[in-house]
Design brief:
By secondary structure, this protein is of the alpha+beta class. It has two domains: 280 residues, Orthogonal Bundle (Endonuclease III, domain 1), CATH 1.10.340; 143 residues, Nucleoside Triphosphate Pyrophosphohydrolase, CATH 3.90.79.10. It is 50% helix and 9% strand. The chain has 20 helices and seven strands. Strands 1, 2, 3, 4, 5, 6 and 7 form a seven-stranded mixed β-sheet that branches. Helix 2 packs across helix 13, helix 4 runs antiparallel to helix 5 and helix 10 packs across helix 13. It starts with a helix and ends in a 9-residue tail after the last helix. The structure holds iron/sulfur cluster. The site of iron/sulfur cluster (SF4) has 14 residues, from helix 11 and helix 14.
């Protein structure tokens, strides 16, 4: 009996030891896998400092489940995708140039411009800008000869203004350092052109130069993550490298440019972020996510019919890969049935945008010939909206500032640019304009002040008076255009609702009179009488 008890104890100890050992092995394997992932980061940094001329290699070998191992599967995907693309592709101006332009230099330039414009901007918005741009600067030498002011003017409204600046810098570099020849390989595009990263170089290289390389943009990330059920953070180095390796495996060597555009087109129109059209997808037979959804549905139907343990074989391999606990490409979160294929890709939670309030003053005067003019200030050449023109503005530091204090602060800011100090109370509050940048939720708190014919000499070189017609064409942001719109509609509304205006209208019918509305002095041309209405005298200045 005693011996039997000892044997039982030994068996239990041995069993526990075995369990511990396997848990430790699992932990070690996962740790090793994660270490491999982490090791990719410094490599990427080193590559950048070497001039980005080398293609980063994949540090982690993904499980076969996340790759394409069979050449037949690759060919199947290429054939079906390209057949769909040939039938369904949208006719876009840059695609036409890429197909029909025989001069490789012009072709490369044209695709470069389109790729830069398409970064962060919808195709529908880009078409118009692209057409105008190519009409004005059909070749790289034309762009190089333009001024940055002209480029900013052309770019106005497209957003992410540093892109236009980089294109301009790149064109000037091509003319001054490369003898007017556009770089003709992916590596050279990456090395020579400012603002051209790994994706853009690959896209230009494959579309304009026929280089056999995959190209991974946001749309392609989504398609590939769904096709191969890659559910780990899609911004992580391990996933990034796995996706590039996949794209390079799949790209059709005979039609690399078309293949890459087909992948992007599929992501934009079929494999969309929300509500993907899987039933219309030409590659659904190769899509793990689609299969997984189908398998889950089948499983649920069987359960409903009473086959409780039903588990279709199609689901087996998917669960096996993620259940290993060490796959760096599998999701950490469980499958959410409601999301379906939208379980992929997974992104880390976005940093919430910064909330800002900015005081703005639309300062106007009668310019030459009585035309209304606006005071605009140029933004610094670096940072947000670099080099663009805007109304003099002041970032509001403290939310609790009273309107009176806000006006005083805005006046003090305007005083820096004008030769004569303004009176706070002459500023009129008009309203607020919300404007969303990618990382900032901006609200412009808009004030106006019309100086009539008052002389308002300018103190600094970064401000200028500009006519209304010139403002429409100037390099200004969409936010500025929204502010003008608000002021115009407020002015119109005021005019329509004002009893004075109605009375004045009636009076005008009887006899011509000059406006005598309080606080709205109408000054005849050449008079500076209202100077004291808006500008403080020397005695008033310290406030
Ligand atoms: Fe995307 Fe659905 Fe096509 Fe898969 S089947 S690639 S999820 S659209």
């Amino acid at each position: 009996m005693f011996l039997l008890k000892r044997w039982q104890e030994k068996i239990i100890i041995a069993f526990n030891f075995q369990m511990c050992a396997s848990r430790l092995t699992m932990r070690r394997l996962r740790k090793e896998a994660l270490e491999q992932v982490e090791n990719v980061k410094p490599k990427r940094k080193r590559q950048r400092t070497r001039g980005r001329e080398e293609e980063p290699s994949s540090a982690v070998s993904p499980s076969v489940y996340h790759t394409f191992c069979e050449p037949a599967d690759v060919r199947h995907l290429q054939t079906h995708l390209l057949r769909w693309y040939d039938l369904e592709k949208r006719e876009l101006p840059w695609r036409t140039v890429a197909l029909t332009e025989p001069d490789v230099n012009i072709r490369t330039y044209a695709v470069w411009v389109s790729e830069i414009m398409l970064q962060q901007t919808q195709v529908a918005t880009v078409i118009d800008y692209y057409t105008k741009w190519m009409k004005r600067w059909p070749g790289v030498s034309d762009l190089a000869a333009a001024t940055l002011e002209e480029v900013n003017q052309m770019w106005a409204g497209l957003g992410y203004y540093s892109r236009g600046k980089r294109l301009h810098e790149g064109a000037q570099k091509v003319m001054s350092e490369l003898d007017g020849r556009m770089p003709d390989t992916v590596a050279e595009l990456l090395r020579q052109l400012p603002g051209v990263g790994r994706y853009t170089a690959a896209a230009i290289g494959s579309i304009a130069l026929g280089q056999v390389t995959g190209a991974v943009d946001g749309n392609v990330i989504r398609v590939l993550c769904r096709v191969r059920a890659i559910g780990a953070d899609c911004t992580s180095p391990a996933v990034t490298e796995a996706l590039w390796a996949l794209a390079n495996t799949l790209v059709d060597p005979k039609r690399p440019g078309d293949f890459n555009q087909a992948m992007m087109e599929l992501g934009a129109r079929v494999c969309t972020p929300k509500g993907p059209l899987c039933e219309q997808c030409p590659i659904r037979s190769q899509c793990h996510s689609y299969r997984k959804v189908q398998a889950k549905r089948e499983q649920n139907s069987k359960r409903l019919l009473g086959e409780k343990d039903a588990k279709p074989p199609a689901l087996q391999d998917i669960e096996d890969c993620s259940a290993s606990g060490i796959c760096p490409l599998c999701p950490l979160e469980p499958w959410d049935e409601e999301l379906g294929v939208q379980n992929f890709p997974r992104k880390p939670a976005k940093k919430p945008p910064r909330v800002e309030r900015t005081l703005t003053c639309v300062l106007t005067r009668h310019g030459e010939g009585g035309q209304e003019e606006f005071l605009l200030k140029q933004r610094p050449n670096k940072g947000l909206l670099a080099g663009l023109w805007e109304f003099p503005s002041l970032l509001l530091e403290k939310e609790e500032k009273s309107e009176k204090k806000q006006k005083a602060a805005l006046c003090a800011h305007l005083d820096k640019h004008l030769g004569a100090p303004l009176i706070d109370s002459s500023l009129q509050y008009v309203g607020e304009v919300p404007h969303i940048f990618s990382h900032i939720h901006q609200t412009y708190v808009v004030h106006t002040l019309h100086l009539g014919d008052a002389e308002a000499p300018l103190r600094t070189g970064d401000v200028r008076w500009i006519s209304r017609s010139a403002l429409q064409e100037a390099a200004v942001s969409t936010g500025v255009k929204k502010i003008v719109k608000l002021c115009d509609s407020a002015k119109l509304q005021k005019e329509l609702n004002s009893p004075d205006a109605k009375r004045q209208k009636n009076d005008e019918k009887k006899r011509p009179v000059r406006s005598t509305r309080k606080g709205k002095t109408k000054v005849t041309s050449g008079s500076n009488k209202q100077l004291t209405s808006f500008f403080r005298t020397t005695k008033q200045e310290p406030c």
